[in-house]
Design brief:
Rossmann fold, 42% helix
């Protein structure tokens, strides 16, 4: 299936690792040029080299902390010619309401929640002015299935789901689409490290970290590529009638 994405320019935040990096590869494989954004320049440079070598497209790096709105403004100035924005930066820490203090909670929301909001505020009119395009928000299943032991993430993700639906509802009138995905557990380096630590502490053996996948659909988490494939399709013309929605990429876990 031709997604008609070749020649588009895509900006991906949180693009040096995990779902963001997989999305950058997914778009590049379709012939898109990509702007890669994260806080660590060395990781971005490595990601750019891999993408350019494999897909023969153009790629640019922007080492910026998007919790600072001044950096969002800078990015909007430097990348005003994009067709698609993928908001993916930010990881909200786990814990119940007593475990996550106010400073930690605010810091996490500044990057993910307000980061997505500020990026949309700046880029929506820019993309609209160029003839329209797509804003994709990578959110999280906790916004659909709240967990008191991930309360900051549940609240933040639920906010972004509402934000996505509200922004996307009338977006087609502007030649725009705003939508999102809500991944469940995903196999990333970060999750692997967390589970190895947990296995060492709880089981006395970090090599048993995959025990925690038991009970998940197919007894495994999603791959980053499975998430990126959904993102790439939803941002294509083949999904042109979809806006103001979020898709759960969870193997059915949210309904179990």
């Amino acid at each position: 299936m031709d997604l008609n994405l070749a020649g588009k320019t895509v900006l991906v935040t949180g693009a040096s690792k995990g779902i963001g990096l997989a999305c950058a590869h997914g778009f590049a494989a379709e012939g898109c040029n990509v702007h890669l954004v994260s806080r660590t320049e060395s990781d971005l440079v490595a990601a750019r080299e891999a993408i350019v070598s494999k897909h023969r497209v153009e790629a640019w790096v922007h080492a910026l902390d998007l919790s600072n709105s001044d950096n969002v403004d800078k990015l909007a100035t430097d990348c005003a010619n994009i067709d698609i924005l993928v908001n993916n930066a930010g990881a909200i820490p786990g814990g119940d309401i007593q475990a996550v203090d106010e400073a930690t909670w605010r810091e996490a929301w500044d990057l993910k929640v307000f980061g997505y909001i500020n990026m949309t505020r700046r880029f929506y009119p820019l993309i609209k002015e160029r003839g329209g395009g797509v804003i994709m928000n990578v959110i999280g299943l906790a916004g659909v299935r709240p967990d008191r032991n991930y309360i900051a993430g549940a609240g933040g993700n639920a906010s972004l789901i509402g934000f996505t639906r509200g922004m996307g509802a009338h977006a087609l009138e502007d030649g725009m689409r705003v939508l999102g995905i809500c991944p469940g557990p995903v196999q990333t380096d970060r999750i692997t490290t967390i589970l190895k630590t947990r296995a060492r502490d709880e089981k006395g053996d970090e090599s048993r970290w995959q025990d925690y996948f038991s009970g998940m659909p197919l007894n495994r988490p999603a791959t980053v590529e499975e998430c990126a494939d959904v993102v790439t399709f939803l941002c294509s013309e083949r999904a042109s009638w979809l806006t103001g929605i979020t898709i759960d990429v969870d193997g059915g876990a949210g309904n179990r």
